Amino acid sequence: MNDQTGSRSLRFMAIVVLSIGIAPMAVSWSSHYLELRNESSNEVEKSVAIDPSIFQSWISPDEIEVQLKPGSDSGTLADLGKRIGASFTWNSSFSSTETEIADAKLPQGADINADLAALRADSRVAAADVTHIYRIPASEMTFARPASSSMKSPDENRGWKPDDPRYGEQWNFRMIHAEAAWEVNRGKGVVVAVIDTGVAFDNTSRGKRARDFSQTKFVPGYDFVHHDSIPNDDHGHGTHVAGTIAESTNNGEGVAGLAFEASIMPLKVLNSYGSGSSRDIAEAIRWAADHGANVINMSLGSPYPDQLMSSACTYAASRGVTIVCAAGNSGKEGVGFPAAYPECIAISSVGPTGKLSYFSSFGKQVAIAAPGGDKQAGGEAGGILQNTLIEDDHGAMVDDYYSFQGTSMASPHAAAVAAMIVGSGVKSPKDVKAILQKSASKKTPAKQYGAGILDAGAAVRLASNSYHDGVARFWMVAALFAGCWLIGKARAGMREQNPYPFWATAALSFGLLFPDWMAGFAGFGSPFNIIGHSVIVPGALLMLGARNGERRLLGAMAFGMMLHVGWELLRGTSPFGPEISTLQLMPWVSANLIVGFGIVVAGLAARKE
User: Fold this and answer.
1) Cβ 605 vs Cβ 556: under 8 Å
2) If we measure between CA atoms, which residue out of 243, 173, 239, 210 comes closest to residue 455?
3) Are the CB atoms for 401 and 166 separated by under 8 Å?
């Protein structure tokens, strides 16, 4: 067999090995990618079956809301009003200069469908819809829970523990390995917007600061119900949600918060009865994105989509904001909105046994499950315990520790861990979601649990390792080039006499950094990482007929890629989502090792020649 025939045989074998290794992952990624595309287009509108009998309770049938495009002014608003025979008003004092959201009350007998069609066809309108009503999901029971030893989690001694006296009752934090997460990151420097009934954040004319929030950090928020800067909680729900995220911790009082070094941005959009309008919520989302929020939590919902809210979620995601939402409390299939929007991370609920809570909604949009309580499984102690203020029978707000249950309680667990991931250096909302899913404790079926149950410890370690490993690889490459330059300086004229060391260093560096570049460009959870994290590039170039000198450089490139892939596999930081199983991963790893080793050997052989 001559050299040419042998070369062709080796290339054919390499193609076969790579195909066998990559095929399982490619099929999995392709199905996942197609599912995401389908979900982001048609499934959003179909995710909840519409029951005509309850339709009227979820809309204001004589109100229209619009999201204008940037640059619109009061003149634009007046002109649009003339087109439909109604008078538009700005939704808030800053709508005309910041959010461009307005609404109008239609005259009796107006054809709302025709008016919406006219508005949506106008080039100055980004979105228009009927005003929808959003509420706190039903069945979220509110009981004060006296100190009790029941449902206390065992002392596992696996990480840092706070001194809060009732921390032992927070089985939910032990379930998600909060102590391991606290060893790495606690959310410092991250702002989480709580879009809800407000938060008991300060002593004002409208309420007081809850007792276990004395050390919690707050940034300025807004009350979209009363249209002022005092978003105090007159219901209790929003404070409980904020408590899970960042209640004062290690202060010798009450219970702990999960990302307790993060700052809370209180945004009140729901009234004292727990309901609010879609336009207020849409405006709050945009306001949060424009005023420094890194993460948004929305423990509210409706069975119907809303164009303004969808537009606001898209806007916030484009500004780098991670949006986490409660899936709903219907107890059946059908994820509510805004959780069902593709920009949002939908959270279902599990109880103390780790099984789906009896009340939790579920569906294909669920990204992950988190502790939300289940009092059918664990009694009062099976709820989520946090500090809040609840109105008693006499109208007084009582400051105590209450046991709630609901996907509203599950969502802030994920939002807090998202804040810790952002605090570890991961900024892209898509990457935050991918890390939450990749690190989850696997559980099926996916419609109920998404990628599995939230694991704070694993998520924060993965985020921290991924970020710091990328930095380490960058400095390793810098050191390689610095070493090459020093050698070249010591050996005058080396690059002219023997340029191989310089170009080999460049090829090796490319192999080390190309997977990072691909993940940064496409996203941590992108299916295109299968290209960056393999020897496809040097393998393809070798098969195209590289010459001796080129084979030497391709060998260095392949060696760099093998080092990178080996590094990530050992550290558990490879950017492959939960849909890639171990059985699919092993053929891919084996194929890359075999082909990569072959490319390196080919490069060494060319060097000898």
Assistant:
1) no
2) 173
3) yes
Tell me which of 459, 477, 505 is where a domain ends. Answer: 459
Catalytic residue among 103, 115, 164, 196: 196
Active-site residue identified among 302, 408, 411, 574: 408
Residue 403 shares a structural domain with residue 307: yes
Q: How would you class 582 by CB atoms within 10 Å of its CB: exposed for 0-12, middle for 13-18, buried for 19 or more?
A: exposed
- 232 and 287 housed in the same domain: yes
Q: What is the pLDDT of residues 211-227, one digit of tens each?
A: 999 999 999 999 999 99
- Residue-wise pLDDT for 385-406, tens only, equals 999 999 888 888 899 999 999 9
CATH number for 209: 3.40.50.200
47 is catalytic: no
**Structural domain of residue 100, as residue ranges?**
55-132
pLDDT band at 524 (very low <50, low <70, confident <90, very high): confident
Tell me the C-alpha distance between 199 and 231, whole Å: 7
Instruction: Check whether residue 292 and residue 262 sit in a common domain.
Output: yes
Judgement on whether residues 169 and 272 belong to the same structural domain of the protein: yes
The residues near 579 (Cβ < 8 Å, ≥ 6 apart) are 28, 29, 31, 32
Q: Residue 186: which pLDDT band, with cuts at 50, 70 and 90? A: very high
Count of beta carbons in the 10 Å neighbourhood of residue 18: 21
Tell me: the pLDDT tens digits for 328-386? Answer: 999 999 999 999 999 999 999 999 999 999 999 999 999 999 999 999 888 888 999 99
Query: Is the per-residue pLDDT at 494 higher than 50?
Result: no
Other beta carbons within 10 angstroms of residue 74's beta carbon come to: 12
Is a pLDDT exceeding 50 seen at residue 154? Answer: no
237 classed as catalytic: yes
Inside any domain, residue 284: yes
Total residues belonging to the chain? 609
Residue 580 within a domain: yes
Q: How many CA atoms lie within 13 A of 514 on its CB side?
A: 24
Has 115 been annotated as catalytic? no
Residues 599 and 568 grouped into a single domain: yes
Q: Which residue has the tokens 């537009």?
A: 311
Total of domains in the chain: 3
pLDDT tops 60 at residue 10: no
